[in-house]
Amino acid sequence: MFRLLKGFGITLNYFRKRKVTIQYPEEKVAMPERFRGIHRFFPDKCIVCDLCVKVCPTDVITLTGKKSEENPKKKIIDTYNIDFQGCILCDFCTEVCPTDAIVMTARYDNLSSFNRSTHFKDIEWLTNNHAYGYYEESEPAPEAGRRGEVK
Amino acid sequence: MSIKTEEMVLNMGPQHPSTHGVFRLKLHVNGETITKAEPVMGYLHRGSEKLAENFIYTQFIPYTDRLDYLNAMTNNYIYCAGVEKLLDWEIPERAEYLRVITMELNRIASHLVWWGTYLLDIGALSPFLYAFRDRDICLDRLNEISGARMTFNYMRIGGVKWDAPDGWIEKVKESVKELRENIAEYDRLVTGNEIFRARTIGVGKLTKDQVINWGLSGPIARGSGVNVDLRKTEPYSIYDRFDFDVPTREEGDVFARYKVRIAEMHESLKIIEQACEQIPSEGDIIHKKGARIMMIKPPAGEAYTRAEASKGEIGVYVVSNAKTKPYRVKLRRPSFVNVSILQDMLVGENIQNLVAIFGSLDVVLGEVDA
């Protein structure tokens, strides 16, 4: 019986300690810089090397390129899609990307929807997925640096 | 007057809150006594072993996260270690230390989930909240270094993916202090509690013979007096450099397993503390060939490696035929082996004790079904 009361004593002790609960939808947890959140895509950096497609374990990335009008030797990106129904956010696409054209943001809450087909995200959505590294949307969109050091 | 009785078949699961996943237990009960128990598994089967054959070596690492998702670091490690054994690569010092720190942090997180949910299963609500508060400390540290809270995908063949961010080691040292205080508090909160003791002492006994015959490992084996911990008996990585004990208990009941896990968390904290002291301040974190993840091609051969996960002995058997994809990957998942004891152990038990016994095995269904 004594030990039972001792346990209650610990519970009561917590009345005078600080709260650890985060009121989620109102208050959001800021994820660290390396957090592997929803992707962001930079079309001007992409060199259409197809490495992200090859390395993706779940085959959710599809892309097509076209010839650049200014420099016919260069290729530029035409379409770039990620199907988030299958994406496991493993980060291999950003790891192999030689130009950091695809990066991962610290954002984790803008994918839920009522419809499966809306999980298919195209180049426009991925380009406009701001909030790089921080939670709030800031204007102008912050420049993406290299996250972590090692590739 | 005699009453006609007959055996009843009762299905527990596949959707049952105390199975922590999709697991079905076919029970034959006579009154309240279990006469036969038949585990039915495979509801979460994803064919991980077969999937591995179609992946290049590195691509399979995120899939090992999803075996035992509560203790993903060790799964990452053991797969990488298997391939490294084939490649015969030497792992940089700093990478080894980072591996050990993250693995032990993850072991604590895994045991904390067990501690919280087990007490929830047997009817105590508030310990769950304490456990998840402390687990969050571990997960925050792992999130900072690996970028994910559960499916870390942090290890790479030949080292680790990222170096520790600035000040991370100091943060870990502080977390260790905080966790040590909090885990010591658990003893006062729960371990001495009369209701808890009445519920667990003498329940679900496993003898030493049963443990050895069924090939059980981890805290279940150590709770029955089988002193087996691969970190000590067959030191892998750099575990031979640390000073820690292997907690064992002779009783073999649910309470013994509980005590072993609590003691193991303290031992893990000891290891983390020592690793944080010993870690070289700089150095490579990946083998020089390991960073090019598309190019890893081990020579033909086979390798088996094993390690001590939070649930027991995890092993990986990799066969290579000198191509970029493995020929065969076999996973020895501790939960799968441990759950098989149920059919032997539950016979003759009361149906009221079923959840208390099943919970004490600490089974993760992602690992059972792979």
From TrEMBL, chain A:
Q: Note the superkingdom of the native organism.
A: Bacteria
Keyword Iron-sulfur attributed: yes
Per UniProt, residues of the 4Fe-4S ferredoxin-type domain are: 37-66, 78-107
Q: Record-annotated residues binding [4Fe-4S] cluster 1?
A: C46, C49, C52, C97
Which cofactor is essential here?
[4Fe-4S] cluster
Q: What is its EC number?
A: 7.1.1.-
Which compartments does it reside in? Answer: Cell membrane
Classify the main location. Answer: membrane
The residues the record assigns to binding [4Fe-4S] cluster 2 are C56, C87, C90, C93
Top class in the EC scheme: translocase
Is NAD one of the keywords?
A: yes
Q: Which Pfam families match?
A: Fer4_7 (PF12838)
Q: Which reaction does it catalyse?
A: a quinone + NADH + 5 H(+)(in) = a quinol + NAD(+) + 4 H(+)(out)
What's the protein's topology in the membrane?
Answer: Peripheral membrane protein
The cofactor binding remark recorded in the entry reads: Binds 2 [4Fe-4S] clusters per subunit.
Alphabetically ordered keywords of this record: 4Fe-4S, Cell membrane, Iron, Iron-sulfur, Membrane, Metal-binding, NAD, Quinone, Translocase, Ubiquinone
Task: Write down the InterPro entries for this protein, in alphabetical order.
Answer: 4Fe4S_Fe-S-bd, 4Fe4S_Fe_S_CS, NADH_quinone_OxRdtase_chainI
Q: Which family does it belong to?
A: Belongs to the complex I 23 kDa subunit family.
Q: How does it assemble?
A: NDH-1 is composed of 14 different subunits. Subunits NuoA, H, J, K, L, M, N constitute the membrane sector of the complex.
**What role is this protein assigned?**
NDH-1 shuttles electrons from NADH, via FMN and iron-sulfur (Fe-S) centers, to quinones in the respiratory chain. The immediate electron acceptor for the enzyme in this species is believed to be ubiquinone. Couples the redox reaction to proton translocation (for every two electrons transferred, four hydrogen ions are translocated across the cytoplasmic membrane), and thus conserves the redox energy in a proton gradient.
Q: What is the protein name stated in its UniProt record?
A: NADH-quinone oxidoreductase subunit I
UniProtKB/TrEMBL annotation, chain B:
- Give the keywords, sorted: Cell membrane, Membrane, NAD, Oxidoreductase, Quinone, Translocase, Transport
**InterPro entries assigned to the protein according to its UniProt record, in alphabetical order:** NADH_Q_OxRdtase_suD (IPR001135), NDH1_su_D/H (IPR022885)
For whether the record's keyword set contains GTP-binding, the answer is: no
Provide the E.C. number(s) assigned to this enzyme.
Answer: 7.1.1.-
Q: Give GO MF terms, alphabetically.
A: oxidoreductase activity
Q: Report domain NADH-quinone oxidoreductase subunit D positions.
A: 121-369
Pfam families attached to this UniProt entry? Complex1_49kDa (PF00346)
Q: Where in the cell is it found?
A: Cell membrane
Question: Principal place where this protein is found?
Answer: membrane
Question: Membrane topology per the record?
Answer: Peripheral membrane protein
Catalytic activity reads: a quinone + NADH + 5 H(+)(in) = a quinol + NAD(+) + 4 H(+)(out)
Name the NCBIfam families on file.
Answer: PRK06075.1, PRK12322.1
What does the record note on quaternary structure?
A: NDH-1 is composed of 14 different subunits. Subunits NuoB, C, D, E, F, and G constitute the peripheral sector of the complex.
* Function field: NDH-1 shuttles electrons from NADH, via FMN and iron-sulfur (Fe-S) centers, to quinones in the respiratory chain. The immediate electron acceptor for the enzyme in this species is believed to be a menaquinone. Couples the redox reaction to proton translocation (for every two electrons transferred, four hydrogen ions are translocated across the cytoplasmic membrane), and thus conserves the redox energy in a proton gradient.
Q: What family is reported?
A: Belongs to the complex I 49 kDa subunit family.
Q: What is this protein called?
A: NADH-quinone oxidoreductase subunit D
The gene behind this protein is nuoD
